[in-house]
Write a structure and sequence with these properties.
By secondary structure, the chain is of the alpha/beta class. Helix content is about 50%, strand content about 10%.
Length: about 375
């Protein structure tokens, strides 16, 4: 029956959609490239869509160029490797932590998207828990993974599937399941139209479109959207937030590998939040203090850049950068990371003006 269904999907040219395990495959590619890099010292940036290339530019590319300019003539200039993919979160990076620790990197920068803390379990990648070896299970079972709906049997099953080399088979199954779901909806809509009956299948799409419009208009955040995306950050993170516990475990594992770690909060559109009347300075400061505490407990570093950039530096309501903006967002962010990447003492106190730092002729 399964093969018949797949054959029917093929004959009807039903298209594939994105599935959760697509992210795992993409991350494997990133890790492979990171592992192939051999030029020490090496800085690995862990992020999500906020740190991926946009319009040919990215924070990591700019950081690499500035470091190369500053170390011109060195036999081995510092190298920067980007391990970022859309949708990755603190949980995703924690699930990757054993593989990350095995890269032998000198330094890790963890870019913390403030939207992580209000993201529901449907926007996470729980299947990635299978990337952790059984030796980490005592730690895993002590973490609040139930906030993602992950049970002990799912942890064991995910590990068994990935360890046995069945990742691509599992991914293919997910892709067929999503394709079948879309085909059923499409067939139901066609049947209702043919019978002249109301098309209730369009209702979920209308609701989804309504919620999207409520969160953003013409690429700009709305009050409802900003509150939903940043609710927990604006209110002040509680000490028992699951993301903080997982972030703590992630940093601890990276530090145990001998690498230095920097937790950096990338810019958010504070100007827009103020205009909307949702920015709660006290709540955000309390949240920053919670993240700083995670760094301090693990002898890691912390850098808060959430208010660094003006409104013009952002291209949408989710804080993705307008890379070609005159405000030079990627340059300004990368410039704040250079001294830390060079392992210079008092890096957080001595960060110079970005224009001077990024211009070899001005040094």
């Amino acid at each position: 029956m399964g093969w018949l269904l797949i054959s029917a999907l093929d004959s009807s040219e039903q298209k594939y959609g994105t599935v959760e395990l697509d992210v795992v495959s993409a991350v494997h590619d990133y890790l492979g490239r990171a592992g192939d890099y051999s030029g020490p010292p090496r800085v690995v940036y862990l992020g999500d869509s906020l740190s991926m290339p946009s319009q040919g530019r990215s924070i990591t590319k700019k950081l690499g160029r500035i470091l190369a300019d500053r170390h011109m003539g060195d036999a081995e200039p510092p190298g920067v490797v980007n391990v970022s993919a859309p949708g990755l979160t603190a949980f995703s990076h924690y699930f990757l932590s054993e593989k990350l620790a095995g890269l032998g990197a000198d330094r890790f920068i963890v870019g913390i998207n403030l939207g992580w803390f209000s993201r529901g379990q449907h926007a996470q990648q729980p299947s990635m828990v299978g990337l952790l070896p059984a030796s980490r299970w005592p730690e895993v079972f002590a973490l609040p993974l139930r906030s993602l709906g992950i049970s002990a049997d799912e942890i064991i099953t995910s590990r068994a599937l990935m360890h046995s080399g069945l990742l691509e088979t599992w991914r293919s199954l997910q892709r067929e399941q999503v394709r079948l779901r879309h085909a059923v909806r499409r067939a139901a809509s066609s049947l209702l139209r043919a019978l002249g009956l109301p098309n209730d299948q369009s209702y979920p799409r209308r609701i989804k479109a309504y919620h999207h419009r409520s969160r953003t208009r013409a690429g700009r955040p709305t009050e409802a959207g900003a509150r939903k995306r940043l609710a927990r950050i604006l209110a002040g993170l509680p000490a028992d937030d699951p993301n903080l516990a997982v972030l703590d475990a992630l940093v601890g594992r990276l530090r145990a590998s001998g690498a230095r770690v920097l937790l950096v909060v990338p810019p958010t559109n504070v100007e827009a939040l103020n205009e909307l009347g949702v920015y709660n300075r006290e709540g955000v400061q309390a949240s920053m203090a919670r993240i700083r505490d995670v760094a301090a407990r693990n002898d890691a570093d912390f850098l808060d850049l959430h208010a660094l950039l003006p409104d013009a530096a952002f291209r949408d309501a989710n804080d993705h950068l307008a890379s070609r903006s005159k405000s030079r967002p990627t340059h300004r962010i990368a410039s704040q990371l250079v001294l830390w990447a060079e392992n210079q003492p008092d890096w957080d106190r001595l960060r110079p003006d970005p224009d001077v730092l990024g211009n070899p002729a001005a040094r």
